[in-house]
Amino acid sequence: MISYIIKDKSTRLFIILGGFFIANTLIAEVIGVKIFSLEDSLGIQKADFSLLGVEHLSFNLTVGVLPWPIVFIMTDIINEYYGVKGVRFLSLLTAALIGFMFVVFFFAIELVPSDFWIASGAANGVPDMQAAYKQIVGQGMNIIVGSITAFLIGQIADAFVFRKIKKLTGEKRIWARATISTLVSQLIDSYVVIFIAFYIYQDWSLGRVLALATTAYLYKFLVAILCTPVVYGIHWLAERYLGKDLSAQMKKAALEKGE
């Protein structure tokens, strides 16, 4: 039985796409605690603009934005061949895994550290390894709740918009359904996560929250446009792997029975 399942091309493709989907989402959650300067990383002058009453803004972003384009590309490809049900299944599974991951992190942090380990990083500029471990791994509840909520809403919106556009365009205009659905879901994700994490839990001003969310979305908007050729490339590889007939059957079923 297991041999048949693994040899089935449609099942194997779902496992591959789902693996990249889940892996990059979890990676984004773990590394997202770091904030980086986009301009300094590219070696260009900082933007320094004002938005919604907040001055001296530049593109300071969470490192978690780096794997997210892969997540949304996988979402579009999965939607293409497995429909809304496929995206919904992976989204719910991933949200559960994110929650499980942070539960494990919590207990890992609470374990009493060995005395020699605490000072083991002193030579490298880390005098207290336990404090550093807690600070990096132990993200606050506001981030966790905001992140999971934004992820689920964004994924559902992405799948819904993708399906509606495909019904209008058919097999044509892959760029339209992939790019527009991603832009809508990224818009929701950007604002929801920051609104929950910092407006509800941290009592930041609404203007600052909206300004930071808008800055993050501008970056994601540009990346989504630049990733359009990648969507075509992965779509081409999937078509080659599945074959013309199986590919057509899967896409038809995904559109007709996706919900």
Describe the structure.
- The protein is mostly helical.
- 75% of the residues lie in helices and 5% in strands.
- The protein has a two-stranded antiparallel sheet. Strands 2-3 form a two-stranded antiparallel sheet.
- It is globular and about 60 Å long.
- The mean pLDDT is 83.
User: Uncertain spans, ≥5 residues at pLDDT below 50?
Assistant: none
The multimeric state of the shown protein is: single chain
Mean pLDDT: 83
Helix content: over 70%
Enumerate the strands of the largest sheet in spatial order, edge to edge or round the barrel: 1-4
Tell me the major beta sheet.
Answer: 2 strands, antiparallel
Backbone structural class: mainly alpha
Measured between the Cα atoms of the first and last residue, the distance is 28 Å
Short key terms for the protein model shown above:
11 helices, 259 residues, two-stranded antiparallel sheet, globular, mainly alpha, 75% helix, two-stranded antiparallel ribbon
Strand-helix topology:
Elements: H1 2-7, H2 9-31, E1 35-37, H3 38-42, E2 49-51, E3 54-57, E4 60-62, H4 68-110, H5 115-118, H6 129-137, H7 141-169, H8 174-200, H9 206-226, H10 228-242, H11 244-256
Antiparallel strand pairs: 1-4, 2-3
Short note summarizing the structure:
It contains eleven helices and four strands, in the order ααβαβββαααααααα. With 259 residues, the protein is mainly alpha-helical. β2 and β3 form a beta hairpin.
